[in-house]
Amino acid sequence: MIDDPLTEKPEAGSKLLGRAQGFYGLASQEEVGLIMAMNFAFSIGKYNGSTVTVLGRNAVFEKVREMPVIGGSGVFRFARGYVKASTHSFDNKTGNAVVEYNVYVLHF
């Protein structure tokens, strides 16, 4: 389960935009591949109360991973698109990672 800060930039003190909430699990026997279901839940500005929903496979050791946007709510109702995820930093001791998501979304 995840409930992580969704920030404007990767630095810890960066502006909080909302929360990245959902879950992931191992889904591959050959590599570290995750199945992810995640909502970017926005809590400020014109996107306050809106979400973008991502569901897909995340091969975490690939430099860039692409996953589909399958929907959204509020401002992002009927959203479709994709995200490109890349790991900004990873701490081997704690297992914590900072991941950058570039979101490309169409909505009505």
Overall CATH architecture: Beta Barrel
Q: Report how far the terminal alpha carbons are from each other.
A: 30 Å
Number of strands: 7
For the largest beta-sheet, the strand count, sense and barrel status come to: 7 strands, antiparallel
CATH class: Mainly Beta
Characterise the protein shown here:
The chain is mostly beta strands and 108 residues long. It is 0% helix and 61% strand. It has strands at residues 2-7, 16-26, 33-42, 51-59, 65-73, 80-90, 97-106. Strands 1-2-3-4-5-6-7 form a seven-stranded antiparallel β-sheet, with no helix packed on it. Strand 5 and strand 6 form a beta hairpin. The radius of gyration is 14 Å and the shape is globular. The mean pLDDT is 95.
Summarize the entry for a quick read:
The chain is mainly β. It is about 0% helix and about 60% strand.
Keywords:
single chain, about 110 residues, mainly beta, AOC barrel-like, seven-stranded antiparallel β-sheet, about 60% strand
Outline the secondary-structure elements.
Elements: E1 2-7, E2 16-26, E3 33-42, E4 51-59, E5 65-73, E6 80-90, E7 97-106
